[in-house]
């Protein structure tokens, strides 16, 4: 309307008017009618036809700002709706299939949950919850089928698989199944023995045999108690004041034992290749063997010292930097946080 008014009244807002301004205004009108507002605005702005001086006069800059603000507000919502519709279509396709396919459903669920989090829709939330429940049931069924095959494979070797998915056990080793990722992992207590490995029976059994030999067939270290006492003494000595009850954190103790085990080769040329590691899981196994032996006392300078492990508090339990889980079975055990001698 304003452009029409300019054309019919020859009203221009610059002084003196340029002879080509009306032509340019007319071209701008054509651009506006064709929904090319930014181009029209730039044309009018460059030629200075419309300057905003008082109310009632057209403000193309304000108009453009409003349009851009509206676009900025609506565009993300539109994009979110597109993502939701796409995720729903994928879920609907899987739900309408003749057979339940757990793994594709898990992938579709991830997309659906991500998309649904962007909008507030009770109906959509109910649909996502229902799809998630069905997906989990399908994954559980798949895990049970795999667990049966794994039981049969170990039974053929004369070994028994205990537990139920996702956590199985063979002897003192536990196997955690992540069916969504199609992988599993062997544990000794809370310590991971392997990286996640594919759910291949041969690969799983091979990894078990390796860890059974490395961990469960490990022999007691007769010198360990002396090493523990020396490391404990070193930790006490470097403190200005003796800690209450003479308690030293087990993780600090492990670090000190590891340093005490280093040879001159390392101290003369410190490097990864010369460093002699003492893996945490081996320390855990050694402590279990030491406790099981009952031989937790030693004589130093004519005095008998007895080792005691302190049970971790609730706040420290589960924190790898503050406590250690000593397994009693594949799935049961206790968190300990410190050690002392009396």
Produce the secondary structure layout.
Layout: H1 2-9, H2 21-33, H3 37-47, H4 60-95, H5 102-116, H6 122-155, E1 162-164, E2 167-170, E3 173-178, E4 183-188, E5 191-192, E6 197-198, H7 201-216, H8 224-237, E7 248-249, H9 250-260, H10 264-268, H11 280-293, E8 297-300, E9 303-311, E10 324-327, E11 333-341
Q: What are the key terms here?
A:
11 helices; six-stranded antiparallel sheet; alpha+beta; 11 strands; 342 residues
Describe the overall structure.
The protein is α+β, with helices and mostly antiparallel strands. The chain is 52% helix and 15% strand. The chain is built from eleven helices and eleven strands. The protein has helices at residues 2-9, 21-33, 37-47, 60-95, 102-116, 122-155, 201-216, 224-237, 250-260, 264-268, 280-293; strands spanning 162-164, 167-170, 173-178, 183-188, 191-192, 197-198, 248-249, 297-300, 303-311, 324-327, 333-341. The strands form two sheets. Strands 1, 2, 3, 4, 5 and 6 form a six-stranded antiparallel β-sheet that branches. Strands 7, 8, 9, 10 and 11 form a five-stranded antiparallel β-sheet that branches. A hairpin with a 5-residue loop joins strand 10 (324-327) and strand 11. Helix 1 (2-9) packs antiparallel against helix 2. It is elongated and about 105 Å long. The N and C termini lie far apart (96 Å). Residues 6-15 and 48-56 have low confidence and may be disordered.
Helix content, binned percent: 40-55%
Spatial gap, N to C terminus: 96 Å
Q: What structural class is derived from the secondary structure elements?
A: alpha+beta
Radius of gyration: 36 Å
The major sheet is characterized as:
6 strands, antiparallel
Poorly predicted tracts of residues: 6-15, 48-56
Instruction: Report the β-strand fraction as a percent range.
Output: 5-15%
Give the overall form: elongated
